[in-house]
Write a structure and sequence with these properties.
The chain is α/β, with parallel strands linked by helices. It has helices at residues 10-18, 31-41, 50-55, 68-79, 112-117, 133-146, and strands at residues 2-5, 22-24, 44-47, 60-62, 99-101, 121-123, 130-131. It binds zinc ion. Zinc ion (ZN) binds at residues 91, 93-94, 96, 124, 126-127, 129.
Amino acid sequence: MKFAADRMLGRLARWLRVIGQDAAYGPQLSGYGLIRAARREGRLILTRDRALAKKSPPPCLVIESDQFREQLRQVVRACQLDPLKQAFTRCVECNSLLRPVAKEGLEGKVPPYVFSTQEKFSLCPTCRRLYWPATHQQRMAAELRAMEFGSR
Ligand SMILES: [Zn+2]
């Protein structure tokens, strides 16, 4: 399942990436740009814009809420996603799939405390961002649990 989020849905797009979903998002993705990109790449359009949904023959999901938690719940429900299955496999910034990276060679590239306490690291091959479980992932996992995804 691949998504294209309209420009009002940046936070939702990031959270879809957190749960491992392929979510395109960017300033070029609005109006017909969004429709064209979605068609070209076979993406489901996520939009707050009912007029766009009427304009757009490709599959489209109109997002009901202003709140990102509700928005994420709606997409998870509508598309029957498992939010925890592929969580933390994708770069939140640029949507690329992360690759595991060996700890050797990372000394000096991550804070010393992180280097000495963490064993598993992932790297975004596109924007070179490094990820490790302790920091944002724990916070985000807590957020996912707060959205009641964790209890299933
Ligand atoms: Zn990236």
